[in-house]
Amino acid sequence: MKQLRLGVLAGLFAVAGILSWGAARLWDTIDTLPSVPLAAPVVLAVIAAVLTATALSIRSRLRAQRERRPGAKGVEPLMAARAVVFGQASALVASLVCGMYGGTGVFLLMNSLDVPARRDQAIYAGFAVLAGVAVVAAAFFLERVCKLPDDEDQGNSRASAT
Fold it and tell me: What's residue 117's pLDDT?
């Protein structure tokens, strides 16, 4: 399984932001710019919280298993793999959604802060971007928690073999 790369996520964010900004400019010419829902940052924050809770749970279970505590539950490899895939998928989608709301937010900041409804939309877009960054950070944390110590050794031996 390949690791998340910050460059790929930043590229997705930038492309989605530019396309969203252009679409918002185009859409505004007919005076019906779609709104940024209040639920957008809330949903992204919930996803970030779930990813963080999953990472903390797996980390504590691995620590208990490593310290050989009596009654410690182990971590099933398939569950850890599913958690990492969930984290990676969430990070990819969050970077796209952040780019979309970021582009819309930039358009709103540049053009129409004097209208209270559009100012609120810009604020919601900003919070959505912040919550999306939290999702990406939580996904990286989850991936790091689930990484096996042997993965680092194999990665170095593969790099030196080629």
Answer: 80
